[in-house]
Amino acid sequence: MGRKTFRENMKALEVEIINQGNLVNTALNLSVDALQNLDTAKAEKVIKDDSIINKKRWDIEEQCINLLATQQPVATDLRELITVLSISTDLERMGDHAEGIGKIVIMHGNTPLLKRLIDIPKMADKASDMLTRSIDAYINKDANTAIAICSEDDVVDLLYDQVYRELLSFMTEDPTTITRATYLLWAAHNLERIADRVTNICERIVFLVTGSMDKVKVSNY
Amino acid sequence: MNNIKIKNLSLTYGKKQVLKNINQEIEDKKITAIIGPSGCGKSSLLRCINRMNELIPESKVDGEILFHNKNIYDHDTDITEVRQKIGMVFQKANPFPKSIYDNVAYGLRINGTKDKKKISAIVERTLHDCGLLNEVKDRLNSSAIQLSGGQQQRLCIARALAIEPEIILMDEPCSALDPSSTFKIEELMVKLKKKYTVIIVTHNMQQAARASDITGFLYMGELIEYGDTNTLFTNPKEKLTEDYISGNFG
User: Fold this and answer.
1) ipTM attached to this prediction
2) For position B250, what pLDDT does the model report?
3) DSSP readout, chain A?
4) Are B67 and B55 contacting, i.e. CB atoms less than 8 angstroms apart?
5) Residue in A76, A210, A212 nearest the CB of B242
6) How far is A4 from chain B (nearest CA, A)?
7) Interface test with B, best of A9, A74, A204 (most B CBs within 10 A)
8) Beta bridge partners of B65
9) pTM exceeds 0.90, yes or no
10) C-beta neighbour count of B97 within 10 angstroms
11) What is the model's pLDDT at position B176?
12) How many Cα atoms occupy the beta-carbon half-sphere of A211 within 13 Å?
């Protein structure tokens, strides 16, 4: 297998990453939609479709292992392959977080939401936007955009803090809200972790382009 | 410590310039790999380090190679002593048509060692160091030619070690060997660097990546990049290096 075939394989893996990213983004948005509307059918779809994201991850990993074993890539080729492996793993875990939100919806059942959701959908929108742009940055090998996206994680962290404080005040004022508040807190935590995993992807992009991760700023939160 | 220092080294064969102004210090007790496409001058560079190029007609060396801060190209340098201290192992194993024992003892005897006990001790130690002793201890007096290719190559390394060199030059030592023999030589190299400085020329980049501490990339007689092997194979500084190690040319 020559370099041309290796490049073609890498291009195919890029497409696989785009597909996996789209699946995760769909799951993320659907899970929060399900939570806002307490729609168990949508939640069950998110839970069921997580296996597709998981399978995609194993398929990508298998292709990467085959290329590592047979092509022994070095330099940029090697970093690219490691990046694909790493991104795919992070996407798979993000899918698990979306699935986690789906399970919370099932647990919530028919009990009305504690409050109308404002910050949680904002967190989801931000995380989803960061995810979309991080996949674009990977395809374009754009380290500057990746670094910029990393710093946006602070926005999601601040929103999470806000949700946490608000839910804490509900629970302190009226202990009967604890169960419902905890569900929402778990959902928010899943979203916060999704944004964190986007920063992992961005760090890998910087590594892919520059060969080091020195330029990535550690989050303040 | 850098006991080998290459300064402004150029080499020509007749009108053809093979090496162009090479400047590099070789780190002691490390494995340095020289990689590059065929004809880039890597074997020529290796042969300059123990003055083997002088055996090639019309070869001319400019610049200096300092060994313990003395230029090995000075007129008063004893070439035999240089080649004793800077040993060489070639692409094709070249055992003498003698017994295994006599192959290793050869260098000692021609250098005047007569003490048989001492010779036996050195033969045993070097064969052990090369991981060959257990394989040949019952047939030390058998012909070396009967050994397998990998064993012959390790015997040649043992022969080079017997005269206690400081530097071992290896010119594609595994190119004629199967993977198992290749791994044995690579393991041996790693063992050897505790006592010796090893410089290896290889066209097998995976071997350079696996076995060496430092790698130099040579292209058309110029040393393009030189540095830590891990860095060179994961994040090379020069595009030319990247293109070569990624198989985009050469």
Assistant:
1) 0.72
2) 61
3) --HHHHHHHHHHHHHHHHHHHHHHHHHHHHHHHHHHHT-HHHHHHHHHHHHHHHHHHHHHHHHHHHHHHHH---HHHHHHHHHHHHHHHHHHHHHHHHHHHHHHHHHHTTSPPSS--SHHHHHHHHHHHHHHHHHHHHHHT-HHHHHHHHHHHHHHHHHHHHHHHHHHHHHHH-GGGHHHHHHHHHHHHHHHHHHHHHHHHHHHHHHHHHS--TTPPPP--
4) no
5) A76
6) 9
7) A74
8) B6
9) no
10) 9
11) 83
12) 14
Q: Are A108 and A183 in contact (CB under 8 A)?
A: yes
Pairwise CA distance, residues A92 & A56, whole Å? 8
Nearest CA to A96 out of A215, A175, A205, A197 is that of: A197
Tens of pLDDT, residue by residue over A42-59, are 999 999 999 999 999 999
Among B233, B246, B249, the residue to mutate for chain A (most A Cβ within 10 A): B246
Reported as a single tens digit per residue, the pLDDT across A168-179 is: 999 999 999 999
Which residue in the block uniquely carries the two structure tokens 């076995």?
B211
**Two structure tokens written together for B103:** 């192959």
**Helix (H, G, I), strand (E, B), or coil: what is residue B190?**
helix
User: To 5 degrees, how large is the angle CA A11–CA A13–CA A19?
Assistant: 110
Confidence category of residue A4, pLDDT binned at 50, 70, 90: confident
Q: How far apart are CA B2 and CA A215, in angstroms?
A: 34
